Amino acid sequence: MYIPTLHLASLLLLATDTSHAQRISPDLAMMQYFQARLIQLEERLIRCDQSIQLYGKKMYDFSSTLHGQMSGMNVLSSEVKSQVESVALRVDRLERDMEYVQSKMPNQPHVEVEDALLDQQVKEAQEMKKKVKITFANACGTALTGVKSMKIVKKSGDVYGSWLRDPTKGSAQIFYFDGTRNDTLVKFPSLKTFHDSNSTQKASTIQLPHPWQGTGHAILNGSVYYHQAGTTNRIIKVHLLNCTVSDSILLPGAGRLPVYGLSPHTFLHLAVDEMGLWVIHADPELGGNLVITKLNSGTMHIEHSWDTHCKSQDAEVAFMVCGTMYVVYNSRFGGRSSMRCVYDIHDTIVSAETPVLFFPKGYTSHASMQYYPKDKQLYSWDEGYQTIYKFDVKKKTVTT
């Protein structure tokens, strides 16, 4: 009985093992299937990631190309805008020149006038042209031939500044502008008072309605003319008695470059001589050359402009004498200042034929120079030293 029972147990165990093996085989197959699917999914994810990276690279390359093209378009747009502005400025200047020429010429006669009347009108036109030239030139006829002497009046204030006088008859006052940007100026009763060590006790302060910029101011007939700070090209006229703005003008094409390469704070330089009020500025469309503009001091209207051959590079200052601009040059490292470019609106002084005029050895450079027509003197600001230059002069030969 024992043996059959053992055999029966063996058969049952064998049956049990066979049933277990049959149950494990489907599970293993299922796991192998899932593993294969996961491997396929992983491969797809890798390919997807590679595609995303490739797409990102293409997008970056496209963005870089687009950015470069946009930068090029911006440059071209700026160039076109600059050229359009240049053409507009030149057209405006040409229109002013034409208006000036037309204002000096007589009215055109009718085509059917008699020959005798036509000849008479031609003669009248020639006489008018002659009178205009004489009137324009006879304001004065002084030409500089050399610097005679230099007098140091005192040392005060900042490295940059200007001091000047009103050339109006009977005026002895000194006006003092310290620095390159402020809204106050100091007035002294006379040159002697300014020279005195305790001059500040006798001086009076004038508060202007708008701050000034640079060192190129002018005083004429009881008014101060200056470049208003914070503006590109606005010149204002302030009456000194009531300190109110009586007039102003936006000078076309001015204020884009410093007038002088060695005086970076001054963009508009107002000057006074025997003929009245002038403005000097540098024009980038002319390669930085200086432009002279004659202003009517009463109405602030532009009378005429002249494009000159004088460079702004390495220039310190300039000043006007009898309608002639004298430009003072120096080195960026300091040295002896000299007048190396002259422009005469009457064409009676030729720059190439004018010898170089040297100033006495001073300090470093001139921050400003303002001509005083009455005494033929130059009021200069040299590294904080207020100096006066006197000139050797001669009479200009004016052809009519």
Automatic annotation (TrEMBL):
It holds the Pfam family OLF. The keyword Disulfide bond applies. It comes from the Eukaryota. This is Olfactomedin-like domain-containing protein. Coiled coil: none annotated. Residues 139-395 form the Olfactomedin-like domain. InterPro entries: Olfac-like_dom, Olfactomedin-like_domain. One of its GO terms (cellular component) is extracellular region. Disulfide bonds join C140-C322. Keywords: Disulfide bond, Secreted, Signal. It is found in: Secreted. Residues 1-21 form the signal peptide.
